[in-house]
Write a structure and sequence with these properties.
Elements (H helix, E strand, L loop, with lengths): L1 E4 L4 E5 L6 E6 L5 E6 L5 E6 L3 E6 L4 E7 L5 E6 L5 E6 L3 E6 L4 E7 L5 E6 L5 E6 L4 E5 L3
Antiparallel strand pairs: 1-2, 2-3, 4-5, 5-6, 6-7, 8-9, 9-10, 10-11, 12-13, 13-14
Keywords: Repeat, WD repeat
Organism: Corythaixoides concolor (Grey go-away-bird)
Protein name: SPG16 protein
Length: 144
């Protein structure tokens, strides 16, 4: 499976090796910057220049949740291995940990001096790695 974004704010999921489109998502108001599959493979999170993240459910064939709270474009997103949390990296110099079940931001991580360009959970851990345009990498404990 391959997921691609485009300038028309759509994403498409393609099956391999036949190249058929499995699903198309529409809803972001600006460019798509990142996507990540839920650990169970039943959902997808996307990040966008419209400052939001969206969670897409494959069985419902659409967006089930929009997460808002960043002041600038969201550059990247990542699922925690338990599937209950999403991390986001933004051009507003912050990253956030979102509780999908309560549909709210749990933590905002501040400290980078420029845009946060990527974010990733260490598998089966509460450790988060961010990279920034300030030329630094940071390790965070998502619980604190």
């Amino acid at each position: 499976v391959i997921v691609t974004g485009s300038d028309d704010h759509l994403w498409k999921m393609w099956a391999l090796p036949d190249g058929n489109i499995i699903m198309t998502g529409e809803g972001h108001a600006d460019w798509l910057s990142g996507c990540c599959f839920h650990p169970s493979g039943t959902q997808l999170v996307t990040s966008s220049g419209d400052t939001t993240l969206r969670i897409w459910d494959f069985s419902k064939r659409g967006c089930i949740l929009t997460l808002e709270g960043h002041a600038q474009a969201v550059r990247d997103c990542s699922w925690h291995s338990c599937g209950d949390f999403v991390a986001s990296a933004s051009m507003d110099n912050t990253s956030k940990i979102w509780d999908v079940n309560s549909e709210r931001c749990r933590y905002t991580m501040c400290g980078h001096e420029d845009s946060v360009n990527s974010i990733e959970f260490l598998p089966f851990s509460n450790t988060v790695l961010t990279s920034s345009a300030d030329k630094t990498l940071s390790l965070w404990d998502a619980r604190t």
